[in-house]
Amino acid sequence: MKIIGWDIGGAHIKAAKIDFKKKTSKTTQIYSPIWKNINYLKKTITLIKKKLGKTNYHAITMTAELSDIFPDRKNGVKYVVNLSSKILGEKNIFFYSKKSFLKKKSAIKKHFELNSMNWHATASFISNFFPNCILVDIGSTTTDVIPIKNKEIISKGVSDYQRLKSNELVYLGVLRTPIQSVEKKKNLINENFANLSDVYRVLNKIPHAVDLLPTLDNKTKNKHDSARRIARIFGKDYKKKHFLKWKKTAYQIEDEHLKILKSVIKKIEKKNFIKKVPVIGAGIGEFLVKKICNKKKYFSFYSKINHIKKNKAINCESAISVAFILNGFLERKKSKF
After folding, report:
1. CB crowding 22-49: b at 16 or more within 10 Å, else e
2. Predicted structure pTM score
3. What's the rounded Cα separation, in Å, for the pair 325 and 97?
């Protein structure tokens, strides 16, 4: 059985092809800014389909419906469902919802069940290994903090609005987030000169394979150009001989980021658990989660999946999860007959 799991986002499209018989996998992710041009969606899905090759089934979760190219989430979901069905084939495609998998007609009818469910897929998968835990998934744009108790996802919120209110969705990532969202104590220039990707490039913490976004000034991603962009936010010009000074500033910004994350995780833990539970780290920003947590209580998303290499698959956790969940779903379905 071969399944391609898809996480179709508004900035990146990630996919993971898993051969469950041979226990092999292949992952890919492509920067696809559909808010600039809706045609990116078609081109990227088609390209990934060709790149990953033949499969038995496709499992899809999405956040692309949030893109402001769509008038609302309803239209966004319908567009993604129709387009992906056309490209990948309606017969072998399944759409992930909180309750189950839906085929095309049901997915369009119950569009509200598909909105931004990638976090739920990752949590649902990880609950098989850690029945009591907090999953912290830090991506390019957002952070999901998801409590799991007795194998159940016990998030207070389901929609983005609810999850923002309950601190289970935090709009801080490690690439696209403005520096001003983290560093608030200083008088900074509120222009799009730099973002957190520059901070973590200077600190050499972003793997090249997932650093797919263009820079805000369209210059290179090397440490000096990244430091130059950070300096502009502080109203200063950059000189190479001052690199270490700006590296120190980058560490200070990271510390502020860590404080915010630590506070949110602590709140979620206090609300939902009597004693400390394991924290599971996922996403491009997993290095931050690892830094915050007690070593004995910290586990990587990949710690229980031996045949998937973290360095090749990082940031594809939702795509991997949805593929595994569909495999289990189809196996259960088959055993009934």
Report:
1. eeebbbbbbebebeeeeebbbebbeebb
2. 0.94
3. 11
Q: Are 10 and 3 in contact (CB under 8 A)?
A: no
Q: Are strands 93-96 and 57-62 parallel, antiparallel or unpaired?
A: parallel
Average pLDDT per block of 10 residues along the chain, 337 residues long? 96 95 93 93 97 96 94 95 96 92 94 92 96 96 96 90 93 95 87 96 92 94 97 95 97 96 95 94 95 89 86 90 95 72
Q: Which residues contact 108 (CB under 8 A, 6 or more apart)?
A: 77, 78, 81, 82
Same-domain pairing of 279 and 145:
yes
Same domain membership, residue 289 and residue 170: yes
Q: Are residues 106 and 168 in the same domain?
A: no
Do 258 and 320 share a domain, yes or no?
no
Structure-token pair, residue 181: 């969202």
**Apex 106 CA angle, 103 and 110, nearest 5:** 130
